[in-house]
Amino acid sequence: MAPSAPAPSQPLRESYTYHSPKPTAAGQYILGVDEAGRGPVLGPLVYGVAYCPVSYTEQLDELGFADSKALTPETRVALLDTLCSDPTNLGWSVRVICPQAISSGMLRRPPTNLNRQSEEATVLLIREVLDSGIKLSEVYVDALGSTKPYEAYLSSLFPGIDFTVTTKADSKFKIVGAASIAAKVTRDVCIEGWAFEELDGTGCELELVEKWSKDVGSGYPSDPKTQAWLKNHVEPTFGFPKFVRFSWTTVKLLLEKDGHRVKWYVTDEGQASLKKAFETGQGRDKDRCSVTKDLQLTSVGYL
């Protein structure tokens, strides 16, 4: 059981942040950032940070932190215990973004894509560590894609801190490896102990828990076990439990294929307006923000 995961039988209804006790060692600190669960179609996305005094880096190198994906589950759990074993020098935090928050962000208009949600989680964690009184001098961030613009963005938000944003930072910097452990173990415990909110008071909890919890696989869309779980558990009217990220293409295709279609019956002008509000924008109107639509602003391309 990770202290950063929900209590047993407690559904994950909203995103939350967990902070370990604040280290008491004096001086400047380094901090690492990494995530677990960016790609899966199931479960939360977890961002983790770990931090320690600059003077503690030699001891940190000897603790065995590394990219969590290269370690066994047993080793990861042991390393989280290590991360908790020296509260004078070691601190860590996680931001757990629940599946429904991921999906609602990506499906709203205009959307908040996964990159933006990831940035917001990272900034929140760094800001809250600073607000606790920790003085950061260096921050190392594991990231995908083009890293320099993101590095410049973080530097502009937190002047005076030296940022390094790079790919595979969890294997290059031990403090990022420690953050990777915090994020990965938290997500694993969330998945293994997932409490299905939809079953509260239904009277068929045991039957459906056994059905929904069986052989979910890794959660990645390419995993045959995950694909089979999704295909076998789609409900034509309601789709899936909140364990599933509805914004993933894998899920959208399954719902289009096996779900009940919604038909809007237009009986008057008001209903016609309602139908239009739910239609997807076409052509130049695609992805336009709601303000321009509300003000009935027209693209210059139509003038």
From TrEMBL:
Query: Which protein family is named in the record?
Result: Belongs to the RNase HII family. Eukaryotic subfamily.
Instruction: Identify the EC number(s).
Output: 3.1.26.4
Q: What does this protein do?
A: Endonuclease that specifically degrades the RNA of RNA-DNA hybrids.
What is the free-text note on the cofactor? Answer: Manganese or magnesium. Binds 1 divalent metal ion per monomer in the absence of substrate. May bind a second metal ion after substrate binding.
Task: Give the binding site residues for a divalent metal cation.
Answer: D34, E35, D142
Q: What is this protein called?
A: Ribonuclease
Cofactor names: Mg(2+); Mn(2+)
Q: Which SUPFAM superfamilies does the UniProt record give?
A: Ribonuclease H-like (SSF53098)
Q: Which reaction does it catalyse?
A: Endonucleolytic cleavage to 5'-phosphomonoester
What superkingdom does the record give?
Eukaryota
List the record's Gene Ontology CC terms alphabetically. ribonuclease H2 complex
Quick one: where's region Disordered?
Answer: 1-20
